[in-house]
Input
Amino acid sequence: MYDQTRAQQPADRSPGLAGHRAPGTEPLLPSEERDKIARRLGHAVNTFADTPGEALEEAEGAFDEATEALVNALKERRRVLRAGWQDQDAETQSAELRLALREYREITGRLLRA
Output
């Protein structure tokens, strides 16, 4: 659930409630990255009959690429979430903390269901 708009804002500025997207099914990885990995995995599957060893290495590489990209996306998401609720004034803090908790719960739930 990567929020690119929020990620591009300076770390010392949160978009507040108006800039918050509701948790949902946003992909964790950008579509270009997902497509690239899927093509690589598809290539491995399609070439398995002719070169099984190379196909397995290709599939393993696609897996490694996907896991690395996912870990990086999750680290960035955590950074953005933390920047959104850290150092808030008392008036907005409660609302921002509630939204951050909801986002942490949503993304953690998605990881546990995967």
User: Anything to note?
Assistant: The chain has a mean pLDDT of 80. The helical segments are 4-7, 31-47, 52-85, 90-113. The chain is about 70% helix and 0% strand.
